[in-house]
Amino acid sequence: MFASHLLVLLAPLVASQTVPAQLYSNLIPQKVLATNKALPVPVEYPQYTDTQVGKWLYFIPDTWTSGFFPTTLYALNTRKNLCGATSANGLNAADWLTLGRSASNGLIPLELHNTQGHDVGFLSFPFVEELTINPTNKTALTAVKQFAGCVQNFPGLEVGIIHSAVADLAARFDPIVGCTRSWDTADPTDFTVIIDNMMNLEILWVAYGLTGNNTLRDIALAHADTTMKNHIRPDGSTWHVVEYNSTTGVVIRKRTQQGFSDNRSISHLTGLIFIALHELYSTWSRGQAWGLYGFANMYKHSKNVTYLQTATRLADYFLDNLPSDGIVPWDFNAPLTPPPRPADSSAATIAATGLLLMGTLDKTNSQKWINAAINLLSKITNLAWRPSWQSLLSNGTVNWPANNFLTGIVYGDYYYIKAGNDLITMGLAKCP
Ligand SMILES: *[C@@H]1O[C@H](CO)[C@@H](O)[C@H](O)[C@H]1NC(C)=O
Ligand SMILES: *[C@@H]1O[C@H](CO)[C@@H](O)[C@H](O)[C@H]1NC(C)=O
Ligand SMILES: *[C@@H]1O[C@H](CO)[C@@H](O)[C@H](O)[C@H]1NC(C)=O
Ligand SMILES: *[C@@H]1O[C@H](CO)[C@@H](O)[C@H](O)[C@H]1NC(C)=O
Ligand SMILES: *[C@@H]1O[C@H](CO)[C@@H](O)[C@H](O)[C@H]1NC(C)=O
Ligand SMILES: *[C@@H]1O[C@H](CO)[C@@H](O)[C@H](O)[C@H]1NC(C)=O
Can you say how many angstroms the Cα of residue 251 is from the centroid of all Cα atoms in its chain? Predict the structure, then answer.
């Protein structure tokens, strides 16, 4: 059994796909170290770059993306442990663990106050990494528990009430809706859930593992089940946003926020009679990537195959709807031209990392998922690898409707590095 399992995992090595060498370039530690040295004081974190020269823009810690740069430093520590630190691979340039720990400190005040809603899951990532290295680190233990909400920091507040100033995810769960609330809204009965929220369930599993508090696990299961029911279309594509009425639990509307189009009716489409025969929705590729990764992660923790089947439907949609050049567009249904349809390199690296997770969990199809992941990484490297930029990759779409695209993106780079690490861990790539 062990032998055949290995064969399945090793098979892609002899397949046509090759892992891009840039995934292990010594430019990666060089750039990450330079970015670390340039962190403003008091600390702010890089989120995305300008479009011309690829220079990072920095944001205050109370921003949904703040955890990704410290987590990137931990990822280079992981790489150092996998590959050793040499001048050839560039990993000898710094003590990545010390840098990761130090860069995490700016996130600690957010445990008690932040305005990031469900994104506390992403903010907690560096502390989750710390616990894999030092499971008794009190700072990291407290952070994970606080962000998840398994300690009662806020007496008097009830589950299901919005607490815009309150940091924890569990407090955002509403049993009538069956989800944690993603964004806060002016009308509190307008309960908004976005597909991205699937990624933030990780913090609930980690905190459940630390404390044994079943409520946290049950919230993750309920959120995933409700999302499975309402966010996914019959063809395996996803809505970005589902709004529920928190009084009644019913779905009020399904729509996009960052994708190309909502569910518009025929009257908005004079002249496009053929398209109007269908509901004209579109699928935002990063949401689809968060979704496939999030459901694979639910399977990893719960071992309930329903979640793997759901991840499979989302992954199949993602892969079947790639254009022939294999480059992930920011929205699968945005027209090629006009307007021009930029790529989203972050959707590509998130999906690739999620597919590698599926490759380790789904023995029957592991070769398919691994090949698809390496293909996404190769195609995006060819398009978007930018030696002269501060980010590793260009061609990220932060937010098309807000006219923010053709940038580097901190989480796109993080998942690029993580995918490189995972390929080594899985025995599918060698350290250079
Ligand atoms: C514990 O973790 C925190 C942040 O995660 C870090 O700042 C601190 O240095 C760590 N402490 C030790 C003793 O490693
Ligand atoms: C478990 O977590 C829930 C949700 O945050 C919380 O309300 C409850 O008090 C916790 N239970 C214990 C025993 O700590
Ligand atoms: C939710 O339902 C309640 C009761 O029917 C109603 O008063 C409220 O306006 C609804 N909220 C939204 C956002 O539709
Ligand atoms: C999409 O719009 C059509 C026409 O307005 C409506 O019948 C349908 O229920 C809508 N679908 C969703 C999922 O909101
Ligand atoms: C797996 O999840 C599905 C969907 O939530 C649920 O109906 C089913 O009971 C779960 N199975 C097990 C064994 O827990
Ligand atoms: C990738 O980015 C370059 C500029 O950095 C741009 O010219 C090109 O059109 C982009 N391609 C896609 C598919 O987004």
Answer: 25
Tell me if 430 is assigned to some domain.
no
In a domain, 7, yes or no: no
Q: What's 363's domain CATH number?
A: 1.50.10.10
Query: Which residue numbers in the chain have pLDDT < 70?
Result: 1-16, 150-167, 263-279, 338
215 Cα: distance to centroid of ligand 2 (angstroms) = 6
> For residues 15 and 9, what is the distance between their CA atoms, to the nearest angstrom?
11
Q: To test ligand 5's pocket by mutation, which of 223, 304, 308 has the most ligand atoms within 8 angstroms of CB? A: 304
Structural domain span for residue 151: 21-425
What distances in angstroms separate CA 389 from CA 34, 57, 209, one per listed residue?
11, 12, 40
Cβ–ligand 6 distance for 408 under 6 Å, the answer no
Ligand 2 atom nearest to CA at 168 = 5
Instruction: Please give the single-letter amino acid code of residue 365.
Output: N
> In this structure, how many other beta carbons lie within 10 angstroms of the beta carbon of residue 305?
11
Total domain count, the chain: 1
3-state secondary structure of 341: coil
In a domain, 3, yes or no: no
Nearest ligand to the CA of 336 is 6
Q: Which ligand 5 atom is the nearest neighbour of the CA of 302? A: 14
What pLDDT, in 10s, does the model give residues 119-178? 999 999 999 999 999 999 999 999 999 898 744 444 334 443 334 334 589 989 999 999
Which residues are registered as beta bridge partners of 243?
A: 192, 253
Residue 10 domain-assigned? no
Tokens standing for 239? 């809505």
Closest to 315 measured CA to CA, from 366, 241, 257 = 366
pLDDT, tens digit (0-9, with 9 covering 90-100), for 58-74: 999 999 999 999 999 99
* Separation of alpha carbons 199 and 232, rounded Å: 16
